[in-house]
């Protein structure tokens, strides 16, 4: 098989795979990413077992929430992207969660002081005032978030040099939480090694994690993909780093 045909077949594989939900099992053998040391799913499970009412914001396909060992009596999840809503409703039947389709902007469609716990993994945007509004006094918000400059090496491999990241800094999240009247009780950060073994995995990742290269399409960035394919072939893999932070804030 020629190199030209090989790269086109790999790109086509990454372009054909459905992107609904947040199941990353397709990457097995093709890409890896370190997991944060704090164990977000385990922390969520422990918090859920101790409350009566909980909300998962931006649930994706519900993959993390579905693994909660002891769900509370009232469990609600929100999702804005219609294809993910259908996936989440199927996935979350096992834990008895209600999935509510929402707009990608505030307000949340819930009464004040509705939940003891609000969680969110990789939210698109955190609406701190809304989180504070729907939390009951003494309730908590627990979230694993995307940090600044995450996967910058991959973004720059496609887009070229970029300015320093201006958003998603943990300190900004702390300030916003406190401005909404919440008290931050935990903050942790991690830089995680991500390794791509073929260009098909890169294509699938860029289609799935859309903020890495905004407006990405195979057609638009075909030349850059071919160059990155050549680099992977020469070096054996492409390495980038994902940045994450965990924040927990409590309602007074």
Automatic annotation (TrEMBL):
Organism whose genome encodes this protein = Micromonospora narathiwatensis
From the UniProt record, give one GO term of the biological process aspect.
methylation
The segment(s) forming the Methyltransferase type domain are 55-141
The protein's GO terms of the molecular function aspect are: S-adenosylmethionine-dependent methyltransferase activity
Question: Matching SUPFAM superfamilies, A to Z?
Answer: S-adenosyl-L-methionine-dependent methyltransferases
What keywords are annotated for this sequence in UniProt? Answer: Methyltransferase, Transferase
Q: Which residues form a coiled coil?
A: none
What name is this protein filed under? Methyltransferase domain-containing protein
């Amino acid at each position: 098989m020629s190199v030209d045909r090989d790269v086109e077949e790999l790109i086509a594989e990454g372009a054909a795979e459905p992107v609904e939900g947040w199941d990353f099992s397709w990457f097995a053998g093709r890409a890896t990413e370190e997991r944060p040391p704090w164990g977000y799913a385990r922390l969520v499970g422990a918090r859920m077992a101790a409350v009566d009412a909980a909300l998962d914001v931006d649930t994706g396909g519900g993959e993390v929430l579905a693994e909660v060992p002891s769900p509370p009596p009232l469990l609600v999840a929100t999702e804005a992207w219609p294809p993910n809503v259908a996936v989440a409703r199927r996935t979350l039947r096992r834990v008895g969660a209600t999935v509510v389709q929402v707009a990608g902007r505030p307000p949340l469609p819930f009464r004040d002081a509705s939940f003891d716990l609000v969680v969110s993994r990789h939210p698109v945007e955190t609406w701190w005032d809304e989180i504070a509004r729907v939390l009951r006094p003494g309730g908590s918000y627990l979230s694993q978030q995307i940090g600044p400059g995450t996967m910058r090496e991959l973004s720059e491999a496609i887009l070229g040099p970029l300015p320093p990241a201006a958003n998603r800094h943990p300190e900004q999240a702390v300030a916003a939480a406190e401005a909404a009247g919440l008290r931050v009780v935990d903050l942790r950060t991690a830089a995680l090694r991500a390794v791509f073994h073929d260009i098909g995995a890169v294509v699938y990742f860029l289609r799935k994690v859309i903020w890495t290269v905004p407006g990405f399409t195979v057609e638009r960035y075909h030349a850059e993909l071919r160059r990155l394919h050549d680099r992977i072939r020469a070096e054996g893999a492409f390495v980038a780093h994902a940045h994450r932070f965990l924040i927990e804030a409590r309602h007074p």
